[in-house]
Design brief:
Homodimer. GO terms for molecular function: tryptophan-tRNA ligase activity. It catalyses: tRNA(Trp) + L-tryptophan + ATP = L-tryptophyl-tRNA(Trp) + AMP + diphosphate + H(+). A motif ('HIGH' region) lies at residues 10-18. With 343 residues, this protein is mostly helical. It folds into 2 domains: 3-187 and 308-337, HUPs (Rossmann fold, 3-Layer(aba) Sandwich); 212-303, Orthogonal Bundle (Tyrosyl-Transfer RNA Synthetase), CATH 1.10.240. 53% of the residues lie in helices and 6% in strands. The longest helix has 30 residues, at 308-337. The protein is globular. Bound molecules: adenosine-5'-tetraphosphate. The site of adenosine-5'-tetraphosphate (AQP) has 22 residues, from strand 1 and helix 1.
Length: 343
Amino acid sequence: KELVFSGVQPTGNLHLGNYLGAIRQFAALQNSYNCVYCVVDLHAITAKRQDPKELRHQIREVTAAFLATGIDPKNHIIFNQSQVPEHAELAWVFNCVARMGWLSRMTQFKDKAGKDRENASVGLFAYPSLMAADILVYRATHVPVGEDQKQHLELTRDIAQKFNNDWAEDIAAQGFGDMFFPLPEPLIQGTATRVMSLRDGSKKMSKSDPSDYSRINLTDDADAIATKIRKAKTDPEPLPSEAKGIETRPEAENLVSIYATLTDTSIDAVLKEFGGAQFSTFKSALADVAVNKLAPIASEMRRLMDDTAYIDQVLAEGSGKARVLATETMNGVKDIVGLLRNT
Ligand code: AQP
């Protein structure tokens, strides 16, 4: 079977964007692939200093979300990145493969560093090399992510390709054939691959947005979900009856696409049903759908968070299994590059 890898940062409240763009697909892929799902805690400290107690809590909470959405830790792997040191080790090799120019073009770095680039951490700049290492240390072939991560995945492919080219003779000499790393493919599925902020249709829904009203958290209760949807920004027009032209109304497009994804239908089908309706009517239907989908996940997450010993055990066992795979790749990399190791 081919291998899927994906990661989620423990940087705050998991939200509907993380769910629809990424986590929702994770469980569905378990039947067709071997899956490795990672809580990428080393990435979480790139943008700012995290409170250590809070960080530990968030690592467990992302793990609880993985479990609550149906990922099976017995047949697949759930773990946290920092327990498998080979991620950081391979990222160093990739820092020496990736070019400054490549990383300078990453829009996420530009967005997160803002105007004061001199003050951004080196880790934030090198984030995509670590992400490439996360994926390639398992020689993963498929990566389910939201649209926002597409550019990083293209960079991962560039790094894999440059490594394969630069060491082509050594890869063959070590018996690995013509390429050591596969070129992983993104799996970007469905309509809501980019869920936007509820306060501003031009910004993506994000954990780090200071306004809690901008996002629906996976742990929000029914009242909070309904209130946030009711207060979501919209325009004064009723809903259109067809998708054509809806892109000029980003807030409407966002809410309709969330509804379509949560109910597994298309934007056209939703507009057929709600075209001409006022937002108040549509928002209350959307709140019902969102509560139905998210409430069971939230309650299972709460139950799991009551017993963190189980979560810690899942992470420890998962890290052990991940490390076996990662060590094999890292040994190959060392042999190819010429880094002497104890055999
Ligand atoms: N708004 C979104 N719409 C669709 N997918 C999204 N993802 C994130 N936001 C959206 C997807 O969720 C996965 C995990 O993301 P992450 O936590 O690793 O990093 P991120 O993309 O940086 O997410 P946030 O919420 O915006 O966090 P902060 O604010 O900390 O940067 C990824 O697959 C991502 O595509």
